[in-house]
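quick one if you have a minute, typing this from the bus. theres a chain ive been looking at and ive put its sequence and its fold in token form underneath. please have a look and point out which stretches look like helix strand or loop to you. anything you notice is useful, everything is just below.

***
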Amino acid sequence: MSRIRRLLVPALVAAATGTVFAAPSASAAPAPECDTVSAPFNYVVLYNPRTPERKVDTELRAKCGEKVAYYPEIGVAVATSRNADFQAKIGVFRAYSGGRDVAFPPAASARSTRSAVVDTKETEETTSVAVDEDLSAQQWDMRAIQAPEANKVSGGSRSVTVGVLDSGIEPTHPALKAALDPKTSAGCNSGAPDTSPAAWAPTNSDHGTHVAGTIAGKDAARGFTGVAPGVKLASVKVVNDDGLILPEAAVCGFMWAAKHRFPVTNNSYYIDPGMFYCSKEPGDAAAYEAVRRAVVYSTGRGVLNVAAAGNSGFDVTKQTTDPNRPHPVDSSCGILPKAIEGVVTVSAIGYAGTKSSYSNYGAGQVEVTAPGGDRAQLPPTGQGAGCPLSTIFNGGYGTKCGTSMASPHAAGVAALLASRYRHAPPQLLTWLLEHQADPVACGSAAPVCEGPEKNNSFYGHGRVNALDAVK
């Protein structure tokens, strides 16, 4: 997850109340005096869906903004402005800039204190491995979900593309170059899709490359195979060089997936700079609603979005403060994108098959679980490390632990299901993924782990099963 780890709108916001966001009508107003020297920041801005683009342009110009992208299907614009008061001009429940909040963090609230539990990047640090031997022996994670047996039946269909919304996929990696589809790849960090290879290729993070290998990698020479080596991959870059996934990038990524009707996307992150976005908070409301609309739209276009649960090790339902920002958390708050209806959330387990120490959990918060690794759950000598093995930079291989690693295992199984059941809607793929999962009981983790074997707060419906997906 993030900063490559990472996941609602008050009564005033449209989704909650039906309020219409309408741009003002064009009038002969004098040109505004706008800031021309300060650093620009990107914002997501809400409109009523299908608002004409000319009205959007008119309002943005009148309030010292400039359009970067506009998605009329969902009424979300991405704008840039140098004005510190741009959000206030538009409306604090209609506009939000994650980039500005990073540069100028809001003052601490008297009502909240910073949580001692912080979602750490250290969980997902890479450990390189030698490639002078058969790597299949080290892939305990694939054996845990019966992927090798599944691959003997089917590796998935080339007509299925999995969108990897992440830090980019190394296009020359021997295990990935056959699966990667440059024609459906794009960079989204500006909020507008850019199809140039430089925009979607990775720069300083191998996170997306590692995720991609788990989903669909195949390197016969080195004995490495992902869950669904027969499907295609699209690199949809939403992580910037600071390791942040800002709302406008996520909106662009989901809309790109919808445009190309990817049957599955993987989302091993939460949206920055906060962890929780809350419906009663100015700014948060706009960010949540923009992302929600994009996710719901993509689901309606046949996309199943799979997301990581998070690496903070807490019960999401009992968190009262945001670890990253100074505002309280209550039932109106959620981690994005996993909090949005229709997203399949994946917790992590280690080699022993029990919840990874860092994995988030919570009643109603997890659909399924999958191997994400745990350095305290070590396999026998010769069978790999405690963290799953996958592809990294420069054609290499390495291990990482995290719910970021669990999510692509589930996305790979979903891709196998999408290959078998062509044109199945996301709701059916979700049902199959859940009902074919191997139940995992709470066991000695009770009472912290709550619920029955087939649907509990640690493991959801159970561990994903690749063999059942193809049988």
Notes: Residues 403-420 form the longest helix (18 residues). The two ends are 31 Å apart (CA to CA). The chain is about 25% helix and 15% strand.
